[in-house]
Amino acid sequence: MSIKRILYVLTHEISSDKKELSLLLALSAGQDSTCLAFFIIMYQKLLYSEKQIQVGIIYCQHNWNTDSLNKANYLDSWLTLLKKLKVNVTFYSCIPSNPIATEAESRKWRLNLFNRVAKKYNYNFVLTGHTLNDEVETFIMQQFLRGFVQKEINTPVRNKNYLQPLTWIHRNEILEICSYWQFPLFADSTNKSILLPRSRIRLELFSILKAFYNPQIENSLKQTIQTQKEQYYSSKEHELSIHLFHSNNKIVLNRLKLNKLPLKTQKLLWRQCFETLGVFNIGFYWIEKCLFYSQRKKEFIFYFIKNIQLEGSAKWLILSKNQN
Ligand SMILES: Nc1ncnc2c1ncn2[C@@H]1O[C@H](COP(=O)(O)OP(=O)(O)OP(=O)(O)O)[C@@H](O)[C@H]1O
């Protein structure tokens, strides 16, 4: 993996016409975000004559496992190194006011914190070190562990200013870069605990799939995810044009516009509508029902599971949730 290519991707991801740019990097001390930190610093140094780039590094010390203290010490030495290199970086080390018990809670806490710090100090972008493997593992969790980890895999506080510039690189390639450049790393013991669903997928499921079926399983899945994402974003664009009204318990759609969209897009849109009302992973059967009813020109009312109903008239379709 060439450094040039990574810097090229970074430049594209962080495309901004502004002369001044400020980036907040979420550093966990793991290999991926450490590697990203060094790339950002390189990017800052290389572009210094064209752009003024402010770099902030945020580390959240959630203390939900015993490694956190060691990590904090490790980060101190990392910072000393940055000072030696005369790098202009602002560092934010954050500790929760109350103890956090689980990984899911600490994740929620730190995402909120990233947003707050970015807003307060005017950072244009928040960058995380997610890799191709993280995306693939999340995909598997969404497919097979529905409901159980729904809260963990949904990231409600994210917004478009979140960048994940390493999602096209395999974790092993990052490790190679880190070893080659001898970046300081911290091995988080929780990454090895099969009690966490994500680690179990990585350490057990993928190792079996790789050994017996497809050594490139992550890359193959990544392509599927990419196609899904493209469909999702194109349906998001359509969504804006057919939504007339939209709240947590009611969505009004323009039936005529909806019926002009390709079937695939209509299906995705219905799925998104259910998700807006808090119903995730709606079955194919119900989506087919929506397609069937949206073709009907007569007035109708159809009751779904979970207090959801679909009402239709010649022009409108109203998907709503009964609160009682
Ligand atoms: N405690 C934390 N403080 C700040 N950012 C974090 C923290 N934990 C995770 N992140 C951010 O979220 C990304 C993905 O989180 P994940 O739990 O997969 O990290 P990790 O595997 O422990 O470390 P890394 O991704 O750096 O190898 C990290 O790359 C980092 O950008």
From TrEMBL:
<dbReference type="InterPro" id="IPR012094">
    <property type="entry name" value="tRNA_Ile_lys_synt"/>
</dbReference>
<keyword id="KW-0436">Ligase</keyword>
<dbReference type="InterPro" id="IPR011063">
    <property type="entry name" value="TilS/TtcA_N"/>
</dbReference>
<dbReference type="GO" id="GO:0032267">
    <property type="term" value="F:tRNA(Ile)-lysidine synthase activity"/>
</dbReference>
<dbReference type="InterPro" id="IPR014729">
    <property type="entry name" value="Rossmann-like_a/b/a_fold"/>
</dbReference>
<comment type="similarity">
    <text>Belongs to the tRNA(Ile)-lysidine synthase family.</text>
</comment>
<keyword id="KW-0472">Membrane</keyword>
<dbReference type="GO" id="GO:0006400">
    <property type="term" value="P:tRNA modification"/>
</dbReference>
<feature type="domain" description="tRNA(Ile)-lysidine/2-thiocytidine synthase N-terminal">
    <location>
        <begin position="23"/>
        <end position="203"/>
    </location>
</feature>
<protein>
    <recommendedName>
        <fullName>tRNA(Ile)-lysidine synthase, chloroplastic</fullName>
        <ecNumber>6.3.4.19</ecNumber>
    </recommendedName>
</protein>
<keyword id="KW-0067">ATP-binding</keyword>
<dbReference type="GO" id="GO:0005524">
    <property type="term" value="F:ATP binding"/>
</dbReference>
<keyword id="KW-0812">Transmembrane</keyword>
<keyword id="KW-0547">Nucleotide-binding</keyword>
<dbReference type="GO" id="GO:0009507">
    <property type="term" value="C:chloroplast"/>
</dbReference>
<feature type="transmembrane region" description="Helical">
    <location>
        <begin position="21"/>
        <end position="43"/>
    </location>
</feature>
<keyword id="KW-0819">tRNA processing</keyword>
<comment type="function">
    <text>Ligates lysine onto the cytidine present at position 34 of the AUA codon-specific tRNA(Ile) that contains the anticodon CAU, in an ATP-dependent manner. Cytidine is converted to lysidine, thus changing the amino acid specificity of the tRNA from methionine to isoleucine.</text>
</comment>
<dbReference type="Pfam" id="PF01171">
    <property type="entry name" value="ATP_bind_3"/>
</dbReference>
<dbReference type="InterPro" id="IPR012795">
    <property type="entry name" value="tRNA_Ile_lys_synt_N"/>
</dbReference>
<keyword id="KW-0934">Plastid</keyword>
<keyword id="KW-0150">Chloroplast</keyword>
<keyword id="KW-1133">Transmembrane helix</keyword>
